Amino acid sequence: xxxxxxxxxxxxxxxxxxxxxHSMAFRAFFALPADKFGTSTGQSTNxxxxxTSMLVKLLRDxxxxxxxxxxxxxGPTFRHExxxxxxxxxxxxxxxxxxxxxxxxxxMRLVGVANLSSPGYEAxxxxxxxxxxxxxxxxxxxxxxxxxxxxxxxxxxxxxxYPGKSLSDLRRMDPAAVEDKYGVPPERYRDLxxxxxEKADNLPGVxxxxxxxxxxxxxxxxxxxxxxxxxxxxxxxxxQSFRDHLDDVLRxxxxxxxxxxxxxxxxxxxxxxxRADRPGIDALFDNLEFASNLRERLYSVVRTDGGAAxxxxxxxxxxxxxxxxxxxxxxxxxxxxxxxxGITEEAPAGxxxxxxxxxxxxxxxxxxxxxxxxVDPTVLDERDSEALAAFLADAERxxxxxxxxxxxxxxxxHGWTLGGVVSDTALAAYLVQPGQRRFDLADLCLKxxxxxxxxxxxxxQLTLDLDSEKDGGPSGHQQLLAVRAxxxxxxxxxxxxxxxxxxxxxxxxxxxxxxxxxxxRMERAGIAADRPYLEDLQGEFASxxxxxxxxxxxxxxxxxxxxxxxxxxQVLFEDLGLPRTKKIKTGYTTDADAxxxxxxxxxxxxxxxxxxxxxxxxxxTTVEGLIKTIADDGRIHTTFNQTVAATGRLSSTEPNLQNxxxxxxxxRRIRRAFVVGEGFEELLTADYSQIELRIMAHLxxxxxxxxxxxxxxxxxxxxxxxxxxxAVEDVDGEARSRIKAMxxxxxxxxxxxxxxxxxxxxxxxxxxxxxxxxxxxGGVRDYLNSVVEDAxxxxxxxxxxxxxxxxPDLTSDNRQRREMAERMALNAPxxxxxxxxxxxxxxxxxxxxxxxxxxxRVLLQVHDELVVEVAPGEREAVEKLVRHEMSSxxxxxxxxxxSVGSGQSWHDAAH
Length: 911
Description:
Oligomer: single chain
Structural class: alpha/beta
CATH superfamily of the domain at 315-502: Ribonuclease H-like superfamily/Ribonuclease H
Shape: globular
């Protein structure tokens, strides 16, 4: 590991850090898995992420005053002109790598680091020239490179930081380290390299002469020049081999020389580390969907102007005049500081709640002006509790909170509610940037307020004096919670302005915030589960998995681990000699798709057994997970997430109830485990019929599509009849299936190739099917074309309710990223509008049930379906209510069809 050197500080000597761009980027690329680092549009980011991590470490540990990154260019160099095979034979560059180079260069520019290159030369030459400039100016020079040619530049004032075993491991190669490693001083490393060659550059060395022999010769004769002059003195096979390959050695020596006298069009003083463009970095990191911790680490080592995406609030607005409320003190504090006159929608009170579902451990309130209070619920007397409950519930005193639903569920355990919430800063940030992955309060403070929300910081940050409790003052924990409340308060105002600019304020006020209360009630209610039935299913799936293992061993004739990719590769490709699948780092893939492909190519029974084993194992794991989440009340309480899916759809976790298939027999068997609870009569399910296609008909205004919905015939059969030119009654199952796949595929941005894969037909046939479809429904084609072009001009797509999704990759030079963004632009308005409509339906159903005094309640939302637990005697009225509210959620050009079913279990209620 590189550590900070023991040298005079940078005030007494300037320090020049030079980075070999491609060398570091390739190292980062292969150190981090490409499939684990990428954006939702398909852009790989592992090289950018790893490069940035290495840069952060170098800037932190080395504290350079001047920095530059040298990059190779794609054209030939003077070395290729002399030796056409130079660098020949290198493996093909991974396709995920090239697009990351310009992104990394953009980041360097934003950080304030110079990117340099020169036609006809390599990055090594640029580095060599800059290193000499630095030494001539009396600077200490550091070179971060994985190219051993850089060792010839090492001097007492120039050190190479050479990669070790891990991404963060850099070995400090000074003159002593080079000589210890190779047996020659740095100024003779070029001589040694000429003798032993360099495989990476396709420069063959002298056969039979390794580094030790080469170092011994150079040590004896002093230099390669002298060695050549006295070549006849070399004895044995090695000596003869040297004489036989002398031309190669001399060529290597010429090509190894690094150019130190280049014209680079830049002065040394221009390489001083500049100020970082913080808004630009924020935008790039958002586009790359990087987690916040890398951003924080980068900002800790670069200079910025304190700028942010939105101007930061003055430092004094973060001051926390904190009162720790003792017994009998909170009510008076609320009277003095939290009146309705001092709290407005534009300047709400910030509320921070610490606790879990059903329990508040502590909370803090921070009002405009900075007055803040820390509340420990265990010390409150009756008057304080009543005052706090009244304040929290008061809709006339606006409040901002981070993660509203969590606060509601925690407060509920004390009988408190939270009214007057005008902003959930997590939801607001999600509406501003729906493609972002995380919405932590600390991340948002850093991005939008330009301050770090952490303990022990100072300067242009939120500060906490964690030693104050020693003097009898508030503890660090108490201050931190109060600061979180203050940060939430100020962040709400900044995000409100951002939402206004993006036209999303009404979505926050009218849809997302009201929905929080509905979701909280659904989570509290949960859904009853039949534990004995699930345990029987678990045993059945486990038994089937064991049976598959035994059968697989019988087929192969020996035991092996069916869950080990390495052992599977041995069995499938070595023992059985089956066709090779996609090449991966560890051999050939044995994932489910690969096994299915092999099964289609061969008739080997083992493949069907392996797929069956995986299915049964996955099902057993799913059922085990469900059993573990059954609470003491016999019900499963999933968690609904509003800020995960960029399209606006809800998701669920712990457990995920949206991944239980409904169209497979096994999925239906699992749904049978979800049953009506005690005190209720039955479950009712209601879902939208073909909502995506109805939205497409509405948005495209294609009359033929609208007529198909209004025809009274089966929609997909009617569509197929029009495309294939036959009567509806003559449409067979295959034709209907093809048009159904086409219709839904278009709604989800499916390409002709994707359609061919889905239908199992040739791409040309799928293309012809798509052309025939568009010939009949030209309005759909025109709409889809206009969606992409409109999004390209505006930079975003928009749902019918105004939910925007920003897609900067629509103008990317990278074809893969651009096409992925185009597919998103196609399906985002349709999927997003469907998500918006079901949310509006949930709000209307919930409100109507409450207004009607019904005991029935909504339990689940799964995609386009609502699950309602019906109280005794309310079945008919509830069905009528649900149908009406769901069908009237939005006025489309075609009816919003609603299908309803009921029964004792989720499965029985299917329709």
